Automatic annotation (TrEMBL):
<dbReference type="GO" id="GO:0016757">
    <property type="term" value="F:glycosyltransferase activity"/>
</dbReference>
<feature type="compositionally biased region" description="Gly residues">
    <location>
        <begin position="75"/>
        <end position="92"/>
    </location>
</feature>
<dbReference type="InterPro" id="IPR010610">
    <property type="entry name" value="EryCIII-like_C"/>
</dbReference>
<feature type="region of interest" description="Disordered">
    <location>
        <begin position="54"/>
        <end position="94"/>
    </location>
</feature>
<feature type="compositionally biased region" description="Gly residues">
    <location>
        <begin position="54"/>
        <end position="67"/>
    </location>
</feature>
<keyword id="KW-0808">Transferase</keyword>
<dbReference type="Pfam" id="PF06722">
    <property type="entry name" value="EryCIII-like_C"/>
</dbReference>
<protein>
    <submittedName>
        <fullName>Glycosyltransferase</fullName>
    </submittedName>
</protein>
<feature type="domain" description="Erythromycin biosynthesis protein CIII-like C-terminal">
    <location>
        <begin position="252"/>
        <end position="390"/>
    </location>
</feature>
Length: 395
């Protein structure tokens, strides 16, 4: 069969599709990936054929942009409406959207996005950093997908949850529509015959009528293994990564001074320069411009990060306890990070002695191991391929 994947212009979202894309290809199915023209170079680096659709830039293309879909859709109650009734706004049922009173809220009705209940607004960013212009959801995107579908005639259009243009294109082109839902996406994808769900059972908000469970396989692109990562770990290793504020990072370094652990800090090339004058790095601290995260996580004992869902899900899969600091933009973290904390596998912001708690037996470590066991029992991306084949055969 012919499969067209549709990705928003966000590298992490594209990478989350890769294990299934390769499973489809190795099963003998023709597989292409559609995205915005400015994102096609990123797509081709994965080894797949890129199909450019829609406009070039973010301006006018996404929710949160004046005149964009969020403005046009004000008052809608569907899964991509902007009134917050899709599950993450004031009317939603998510335990971590509590009117701004809980540790994972950013203010009344804005637990995950600065613009309100809609996670894809330009001020939000969501679990994968999906900001307004990166979402594939406008008329040009749909028309571009339909033009390609008319020529290539895909049997299946598998669209990322932040690329709902794929749903409309599938409906008009007569292709089977399947949504690859990210951990932060809504629970009612538009017109999907099925939903690929990578969350373990205890972290799901609801059961989809046609849910296809798929074990998450963490992929971060090509990388070269650094020499230090090829040596035996001599003390517990903690990965520190994400958009941590300078104050949070300085506090972590101070706390780490009394912990016998190795810190691997993946915070960008200027992280150390942003520290207050006189800040001393604890012993066994690595300050690195970049880290091959997928290769580093299996060597770690714990993770400190800003709450992004991709890394949260990866840490869950590896059974690593997590300390979720909250992002630098006001402490908002993803829904999945909040649920991981509720499951006992992560510590919320402000937890005293967090680093020691992460390394201790019991507590978050036990919760993380329990979640990892759930993930290990989920079907692999290869196992999902026959299910997709049956959906296409039954249309």
């Amino acid at each position: 069969m012919r499969v067209l994947l549709v990705s928003p212009s966000v590298k992490d979202r594209l990478y989350s599709l890769m294990p299934l894309a390769w499973a489809l290809r190795t099963a003998g199915h023709e597989t292409q990936i559609a995205g915005r023209p400015g994102f096609t170079d990123t797509i081709t680096m994965t080894g797949f054929v890129a199909v450019p659709v829609g406009g070039e830039g973010p301006a006018g293309h996404g929710p949160g942009t004046p005149g964009g879909p969020a403005a046009a859709g004000a008052g809608r109650t569907g899964p991509y409406g902007s009134d917050g009734t899709g599950g993450y706004g004031p009317g939603g049922a998510d335990a971590y959207d509590d009117g701004g009173t809980g540790p994972y809220a950013g203010g009344p009705g804005t637990a995950y996005g600065a613009g309100g209940g809609e996670p894809y607004t330009s001020g939000g960013g969501g679990a994968y950093g999906v900001r307004g212009g990166a979402v594939l959801d406008d008329h040009a995107d749909v028309e571009g997908l339909l033009a390609h579908a008319a020529l290539w005639r895909p049997d299946l259009i598998l669209w990322d949850g932040a690329a709902p243009a794929g749903a409309e294109a599938a409906a008009k082109a007569g292709a089977v529509s399947v949504c690859a839902a990210g951990p932060f996406d809504h629970d009612a994808p538009l017109g999907a015959a099925a939903v690929l769900d990578t969350l373990p059972p205890s972290l799901r908000r609801a059961e989809h009528a046609e849910r296809i469970p798929v074990r998450p396989v963490f992929y971060t692109g090509s990388a070269q293994l650094p020499a230090w990562l090829g040596r035996k770990v001599r003390r517990p290793r903690i990965l520190v990564t994400g958009e941590l504020s300078d104050a949070v990072f300085a506090g972590l370094l101070e706390a780490a001074a009394g912990v016998d652990a190795e810190l691997v800090c993946d915070l960008g090339p200027d992280a150390q320069d942003r520290l207050p004058a006189g800040t001393r790095l604890p012993a066994h601290t690595r300050m690195l411009d970049t880290v091959p995260v997928a290769a580093t996580l299996p060597t770690c004992a714990a993770v400190v990060h800003d709450g992004g869902a991709a890394l949260t899900a990866a840490a869950v899969a590896y059974g690593l306890p997590q300390y979720v600091t909250g992002a630098a933009d006001g402490g908002r973290v993803s829904a999945v990070a909040g649920r991981a904390a509720a499951a006992g596998a992560a510590l919320p912001p402000g937890t005293p002695d967090a680093l020691r708690a992460l390394l201790a037996d019991g507590g978050p470590r036990d919760g993380a191991r329990a979640l990892a066991a759930e993930v290990a029992a989920m079907p692999s991306p290869r196992d999902a391929v026959p299910v997709l084949e049956r959906l296409v055969a039954a249309r």
